[in-house]
Amino acid sequence: MRRTKISRAFRRVGKEYRARLLAAADGAQSKLRGLAKIQTIARGYDQSGIVATIGHAREHNGKAVQHFLPSGSFAILPLTGKRSSIVWTEESTEAKRIVALPSAEFLAELELRFGLQLGELEVLSPARSYPLQISIARSFVAERLALVGDAAHVIHPLAGQGLNMGLRDVAALAECIADNARLGLDPGAPEVLSRYQRWRRADTVAMGLATDGLNRLFSNESMPLKYLRDMGLGLVDRAPGLKKFFAREAAGLTGDVPKLLRGEFI
Ligand SMILES: Cc1cc2nc3c(=O)[nH]c(=O)nc-3n(C[C@H](O)[C@H](O)[C@H](O)COP(=O)(O)OP(=O)(O)OC[C@H]3O[C@@H](n4cnc5c(N)ncnc54)[C@H](O)[C@@H]3O)c2cc1C
User: Fold this and answer.
1) 45-131, superfamily in CATH?
2) pTM for this entry
3) 131 in contact with ligand 1, CB cutoff 6 A
4) Residue 258: CB within 6 Å of ligand 1?
5) Other C-beta atoms within 10 Å of 218: how many?
6) Same fold, 5-39+138-262 and 45-131
7) Which residue's C-alpha comes closest to atom 9 of ligand 1?
8) Short-list 200, 201, 152, CA closest to 172
9) Does any ligand 1 atom lie closer than 6 A to the CB of residue 163?
10) Which residues, in sequence order, are CB contacts of 118 under 8 Å at separation 6+?
11) What is the Å distance from ligand 1's center to 27 Cα?
12) Each residue of 31-57: pLDDT tens digit?
């Protein structure tokens, strides 16, 4: 088999693997993306996401809640039992200050945002903060290489779509490979990769722009934006069709959904 640019790069780091296609799922700092010399278009948000597991006295009944606060979104995501995970956006220096607080003071800051609707709160895991960014690879493919998940794209977590997008990538790539393999064709052929890239890149850019826009709209106290935002939320709340559309969008059920995500065989 002819050596590709990436297999030559692997040899330089002292390891050699042979495959007709390599799927790079090694996260936002993807080493494989770097070895393939694929650039990203990236911008930091000067915001960080604080994550922690929180225990509460009352049942959450499987309900996820999101508050849009001036500093950014605050999401409460149900876990098993009387536990929830939080994704709390703050300006980066403020996030650093908050995670370094002694536990009683951290709890007080948390209660201000979480509220006490689920009863007494308890912090079950050390809070950590992660800098937030938008970053999209200039290409999702190279010779015999496909980027999937955060290796291909990182978006603001306010819509909770990062993992969904990665799952869509995997399902789309599997479908492209299976369709070619069924004809006895090479799974790493350029037409497989270009179909995968066409399928996923446009969708990713659209989601990246949407989350970027939502973050600007919600992390802002300018009066016209505040008015637009409140009016928008009110409209969505009163229009069941719109509400359903956003719920389907959040569940990753709109657009060209790959078969595996629709529960079909490939
Ligand atoms: C604060 C925050 C909150 C978020 N909240 C949500 C949310 O509510 N909902 C949601 O859907 N998404 C959320 N996301 C995004 C979500 O976490 C990511 O989109 C998702 O984890 C990406 O999965 P991935 O497998 O592509 O990458 P990762 O989860 O980063 O996994 C990459 C894996 O590759 C491994 N790896 C890397 N390099 C190597 C190597 N050289 N050799 C071997 N292994 C390697 C790593 O150890 C890691 O296990 C959030 C992100 C942040 C930062």
Assistant:
1) D-Amino Acid Oxidase, subunit A, domain 2 (3.30.9.10)
2) 0.89
3) no
4) no
5) 21
6) no
7) 160
8) 200
9) yes
10) 56, 57, 58, 59, 60, 82, 84
11) 5
12) 999 999 999 999 999 999 999 999 999
Residue nearest to atom 28 of ligand 1 (CA): 27
Q: Return the beta strands (E) in 92-229 as ranges.
A: 121-123, 128-137, 141-142, 145-147, 153-154
How many angstroms separate the CA atoms of 114 and 119, rounded? 10
Domain boundaries, the chain: 5-39+138-262, 45-131
* Residue 25 CA, ligand 1 centroid: distance in Å: 9
Looking at the structure, give the CATH architecture of the domain made up of residues 5-39+138-262: 3-Layer(bba) Sandwich (3.50)
Q: Does residue 208's CB lie within 6 angstroms of at least one atom of ligand 1? A: no
Which residues of the chain are under the pLDDT cut of 70? Answer: 1-3, 5, 10, 221, 223-228, 230-237, 239, 242-243, 245-246, 249-250, 252
- C-beta of residue 56 within 8 angstroms of C-beta of residue 120: yes
pLDDT in tens, 1-13: 566 767 777 677 7
Measuring from atom 31 of ligand 1, which residue has the nearest CA? 27
Q: How far apart are CA 264 and CA 248, in angstroms?
A: 18
